[in-house]
Amino acid sequence: MVLLADPEGRFKQRLQSKKSVYRLWTPSNIMFLIGFFIILLTSGFTTFSFVLSLLPSTSTSFYPTSIPWLYSKSECEHTGRIWRNEKCWDYEHNPMF
Fold it and tell me: Which residues, other chains included, contact 93 with Cβ-Cβ below 8 Å and sequence gap of 6+?
């Protein structure tokens, strides 16, 4: 009954005052949301970069290295490696070994 017979318009005034109290897009809220999204993007990028750095790179480079568990020339040459300077050398050593 009050809604239909509101000649002074108090109901509309109350609605407008409640809306102005609970506005979402205030300048402080906008600045907070911008800061939040900047922090979120920065931390996401940092996390993603860190995870990618942990993954092994597929390098096709090979480096010569001595094989410490082969002590004789015959054992070394049997495995297809080269015996030099009293050490067994592998010239196709992959760092992922």
Answer: 62, 63, 64, 65
Number of domains composing the chain: 2
CA 4 to chain centre: 59
| Cα(6)–Cα(65) distance, integer angstroms | 93
* pTM for this entry: 0.41
Within 8 A by CB and 6+ apart from 73, the residues are 83, 88
Indicate if 16 and 42 belong to the same structural domain: yes
Residue 16 confidence (pLDDT): 64
HSE on the CB side for 75, CA within 13 Å?
9
In a domain, 21, yes or no: yes
Identify whether 5 is part of a domain.
no
Q: pLDDT digit string (tens) for 11-43?
A: 666 666 655 566 778 899 999 999 999 999 999
The verdict on residue 4 lying in a domain is no
